[in-house]
Structure formats: C-alpha cells, structure tokens
Amino acid sequence: MSELVTGEAVALELRPARLPSRALAVLLDLVAAMAVYVAVTVALVVSTASLDEAAQTALSIATFVLVLVGAPIAVETLSHGRSLGKMACGLRVVRDDGGPIRFRHALVRGLIGVIEILMTFGVVACIASFVSARGRRLGDVFAGTLVVRERIPVARTGFVPPPPPWLAGRFSGLDLSAVPDGLWLAVRQYLTRMQQLDPQVGWSMAQRLASDLAERTGAPVPQGVPAAAYLAAVVQERQAREARRAFGSGPGKAAPASATDGVPAAGVVTTAPEPRVVPPGPVSEPPGGGGRPSESPEVPAVDERPRTGFVPPA
Question: Where is the RDD domain (predicted)?
C-alpha cells in the first residue's frame, strides 16, 4: 500500500500497480492501437494511390503520430486515466495526490512513452519500474502520476463502532433536530474509517466534528469524554430514536389510553358490536281469545355491557 496525502491532509491508502499488470495493460493497448493503425493505413493507401510518394509518406507519418501517440493521449484524458488495457486489468492513472489526471499529464506520459516504450521496446520502462519504489516509469515521474489498482479486496465498511458502555443513554435528552444530514454523513464516514486514518489526522477530524455537532445541538461536549466516543454515542442515540419512531412503542407495551372515555386512541381502530334494539310493537294476546292481555309479556333482552355513548344513525 502507498500513502498519498491530499490537500486536506487526509492520508489515502492506494495500491500501486506492479510491472506484470502494467505490462499486460500496455500490450493490450498496443494491440488495439496497431489494429487501428493497420486499418487506417490500408484505407489511406487505397484512397491515396494517385498521390505522389512524398504525399504518401507525409500521410503515413501523420497517421502514425495520430493513431499511436495522439489517440492514447485523448483516451486517457477523456476516460480520466483508463485506457482499454487498463480497464481490462483494473488499473487507473491518477495524480500524485490521488486526483484524476488532466490533458497535460496524459500528454507528458504519451510523449515520453514513445521513447521508453515504442522506440526501446519497453526496456527503459521496465528498468524504471524495477527501480521505482511505486513501480513508476519515466513518464509517470515527469508527469507526476501513478498507476494504481482499482480492483482490490473491499474492506469492511459501513460499520459504526459502538460507544463505551458508560456512555449508554447519557445523551437521551439531547436535541438533534438542528443537525443537518451532511454533518451526520460526515460523522458516520469518519466513524467507519477512523481505524484507517493517520492517528493525528483522525484526532483532529474527530475534534472538529465533535465541535460542529456540539454547536448544532447547543450542548458542549462533556468533560473527560473523547471526541470519537462522543460522536459514536450521539450517533447511537440518533439510531435509537429513529428505531423508536419507525417501530413505535414496540411489542409487549400497552397502547396509550385516550383522554376521552369511550373514544379510541389515535391510530387504534376498535370494533365493538352494536347494541340490539327491539322496536316497540303491539302486545299480542294469547290464542283462544278472552280479551285478557298476557300476564307476562315478553320483555326484550337488555345488553348489560357498559355503554359506549354510540347512537346508531336514524
């Protein structure tokens, strides 16, 4: 791994490409470039057969320069350091600070590559790569670039380390409503990668993020609490609040009672059977006549359950 320090004093760990992978990428680029060069040359010979020998020679030189020199420079500039061979091998050309290359970097690499790759059949480039600690050829040295590997094993990311147990629940009363999403993202990225940062750089970043977070919440960082532990505890408190908001009060807890008796709580739907209402009607006489009303008329059953105040519509 090679550590590159960016303008923000962040140490980047990159894996430089070694000679075998770079040689394979250059070979694939040369094969593609030679195929295009042969096709263009054949087309020019057929179309310029009526020209004199001097014109044909000038066109051949121009074709060689444009296809074998200009085309790789244009491809690396437009693709930000990824030619056809580098794409196949998982490589990329970057600046010394880890940023994408520009036209001037690709131009210097292409012009010097004509001498150390095409004219010397790659001997100078191989010797320079063996001597360099990061496998750079002369074109990379003069252009200030580095060829790195993009296909590397993915490290375990996205895991926020838990805070110390003695900080559990200490920030339950903290107001987190004024903290923007960008600050939460920066804190989470720092916590997931703080083991990969330089200790001094990581400490300064934690101090800055903790001060920004304390300013947004309106409460200072407690004395004796490390900045990284403070950030982890606040992030855990935010995650706990989001979990309570998403899943409610959780299983096993009773729903909140309503302030008005008989009215269900918000969000709770209750279905109660309607009371049976028997409309009044004429009292039936017993069979056999006599005009004597029934001594024990049938009385409809009355629902003994507590009233809910519900009146059915007319």
Answer: 17-144
pLDDT at 258: 38
Q: How many domains does the chain have?
A: 2
pLDDT tens, residue by residue, 266-302: 444 444 444 454 455 454 444 444 444 444 445 445 5
Residue at 13 is within a domain: yes
Average pLDDT value for residue range 216-245: 84
Nearest to 126 by CA among 29, 37, 27, 31: 27
Exposure string of 78-102, with b = 16+ CB inside 10 Å and e = fewer, is ebebbbbbbeebebbbbbeebeebe
Residue 298 token pair: 């049938």
Structure tokens at 299: 């009385």
Residue 161 has pLDDT above 50, yes or no: yes
Residue from 264, 286, 277 nearest 313 by CA: 277
Q: Determine how β-strand 91-95 pairs with β-strand 145-149.
A: antiparallel
Domain housing 15: 2-149
β-strand pairing of 91-95 with 11-14: unpaired
Is 93 in the same domain as 196? no
Yes or no: say if 113 and 105 are a contact pair by the CB < 8 Å rule.
Answer: no
Strand partners, 2: 14
pTM of the model: 0.47
**pLDDT band for position 240 (50/70/90)?**
confident
Q: Are residues 145 and 8 in the same domain?
A: yes
